[in-house]
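Hi support team,

I'm filing this because I wasn't sure whether my run with nicotinamide-adenine-dinucleotide finished correctly. The job status page said complete, but I'd like someone to confirm that the output block is well-formed before I use it downstream. Pasting the exact inputs I used:
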Amino acid sequence: QNVPELTLNDGLKVPAIGLGTYSLKGEEGVKAMAAAMDAGYRLIDTAFNYENEGAVGKAIKRSSVAREELLICSKLPGRRHAYKEALVTIEESLYRADLDYYDLYLIHWPNPKQDVYVEAWQAMIEAKKRGYIRSIGVSNFLPEHIDRLIKETGAAPSLNQVELHPFFDQAYQRKKDAEHGIVTESWSPLGRGNDIVQDEQIVRIAEAHGKTGAQVILRWHTQLGAIPIPKSGSLQHQKENLDIFDFELTAEEMDVISSFSREDGRLWGQDPSTYEE
Ligand code: NAD
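And here is everything the job wrote out:
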């Protein structure tokens, strides 16, 4: 598969699509992730909280792809934001996956009520200096949280992973991320396999390109400039989701897909200004 790359504000080149791994764990998860790597996935999204960093590490060894060719991303849990704890957690995260470094590491949620995320960010900066992480980013950070990190540490994240799908296109967040040179990454890019992939309007666009509803939605993400990380345990869906770089949606088709969006189109109500992980 010919997957284009994006360059982050720290110079790291990342593929335009990745594999979500939430709930892929144990032997079954290892098999599914190794198959995805062999099928062409290079960017793999995990988290300390998914309890599958071990399976990711096993899948890397089992796949035919060299470690250096892969970009492995994990995340720091909300209960580990305090400086020392954050650094130890990142070390534990590496041991779990049996890796020497993560390519990307994100603060999973800002947890603003707890309000320790600036300290977590300082630990992330130190972890990068120590060589634990090549590129540091955030997840579920609103513009105000990102502004504060920059104001208090002078360092902008490279990437912000947020809920983004046709019901919630995150136009404002994407604009604010872009102002800081931050790439937006889409979690639940297919609305978690919601009926959206079979919606009549989506299917009509898909048929016009000889593609599936899922492919058209993933293509929409990439044309917005966002990196989708669809999760699938099935090789057929994994391959289908990668095969989105040989067609282009028209401006009208992009608008039709975006028209599903609502001001608060979050599907599970996880608003980062109140949600505490
Ligand atoms: P998703 O939008 O990727 O949807 C996954 C579902 O869609 C699965 O049930 C899968 O079987 C189905 N699917 C996949 N490909 C399909 C296809 N081609 N056709 C039809 N159905 C298909 O949802 P997700 O798993 O919630 O999100 C993706 C990843 O994002 C997660 O695995 C995780 O890595 C990450 N994530 C991060 C956060 C965060 O707070 N940072 C939160 C949720 C998820």
